[in-house]
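Supplementary Text 2. Reproducibility record for the structural model of the 131-residue chain.

All settings were left at their defaults, and a single model was retained for analysis rather than an ensemble. We include the record here because the model underlies the residue-level annotations in Supplementary Table 4.
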Amino acid sequence: MISNKIESSTSISTQSSNNSPATIPKESVTVIDNRSGERVEIMIVDNSINATDLSRIKDKNGEVLRSYDPAYMNTICCTSTISFIDGDKGILEYRGYPIEQLAEQASFLETAYLVIYGEIPTIAKLKEFKS
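Retained model, structure tokens:
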């Protein structure tokens, strides 16, 4: 049987034990340009920063700061709900299903339906999809 992964989320309490408001940590990083002293706050989403946010930092000629990662050792190209790849661990998933499981238990059309619609089709939906 094919089953989906379930991701959990956490919440941050806004009240401390003594009933005073608690400080909620910011999901951001502050970059200080030592050339000018300018401080830029960059938001962190899914433990990543958007490299284009660095363009808010400019030199005295107005040229934007860029990041350089020649081997893509610390760069992601996108965040996807369709596929997940971790090459170091040998993981490839489509919509939470390991590719090995799909290759063994699902047809090409079932996998295509999964990628497009986000779920394994029922027999009736697969028949309609084939037509």
